[in-house]
Amino acid sequence: MSQRQTAHIEEPLSIRERFECYVSPPQLMVKAIYFYILTFFSSPSLFFRDHATFRHKAFGALWARYGAAMSEEMPEGTIPLIATAQGVVLDIGPGSGTQLHLFDPSKVTKVYGVEPAADLIPELIRNAEKAGLGTKYEAIVAGAESISLIPALAKRNLLHNPEKGSTGIFDTIVTIRVLCGVPHNEETAAGLFRLLKPGGRLLVVEHVVQPYPKGGDFIAKRMQQLYMLFGWWYWLGGCCLDRDTEQILRKVAGKDGWKEVNLKFLGRQHAIPYIVGELVKA
Ligand SMILES: C[S@@+](CC[C@H](N)C(=O)[O-])C[C@H]1O[C@@H](n2cnc3c(N)ncnc32)[C@H](O)[C@@H]1O
């Protein structure tokens, strides 16, 4: 397996820049709590009846308000990476579709956008139109976890063998800031790996755990732990700051599952560092 790995040399930040990187997450957490409370007052029965849907609704309300602003600056490499998505694409957790303009409509034949926050779907479809994807984009209200995704794909006749759970369906799977929050992360990642065709590419732009002490930054790592302790995960729709998504993706594919892993690690001194790049299925 050829692996150009995650090493990426970055300029050290000034003290002021480091401080800003450390303390930016709580500002988002306060906004998330505000939308959580608003959602509780608008849909109190949902809170008790279907808590998972309630949390998707609360996160959806936050994202509808701030998603566009939070998509203005993406990690380096995101734009050229997403422009390479081609063929039949599975777009996991597209939110309101603020990244859809990055797709090259001439390269894709069909894009299935799997988004559990149903309230975001109308804006998602509008953004697909604006991005020139039009009828090539199909929004699906479901989660990435197999228990939700597989029946949704079966309904669209996308599975070759619905009883056994099909494999090798998509040329490209795109995950942007979403694997941090999917439930049962290993199982979900394994399900996505199975859905890729041999030679298919998983494109990832994901925030991950600070690798300290194996590189990374001591304070940024502690900040991640602190924010998780204060309920980041709960308020932010299940988002975990401490997920080692690269290791999870490597693990679920097994030793020779990926023929190429080409990921950059960005943000050595950030509380929210990223991996950006592709994994190519053997
Ligand atoms: C931080 S937003 C990112 C949206 C978009 N990918 C972007 O980067 O602009 C995370 C998205 O993942 C969605 N999401 C949450 N749980 C999910 C799940 N289990 N499966 C798929 N998407 C999920 C959320 O509803 C939300 O739209």
UniProtKB/TrEMBL annotation:
SUPFAM superfamilies: S-adenosyl-L-methionine-dependent methyltransferases. GO terms for biological process: methylation. One of its GO terms (molecular function) is methyltransferase activity. Keywords: Methyltransferase, Transferase. InterPro entries: SAM-dependent_MTases_sf, Thiol_S-MT. The keyword Heme does not apply. Pfam families: Methyltransf_23. This is S-adenosyl-L-methionine-dependent methyltransferase. It comes from Tothia fuscella.
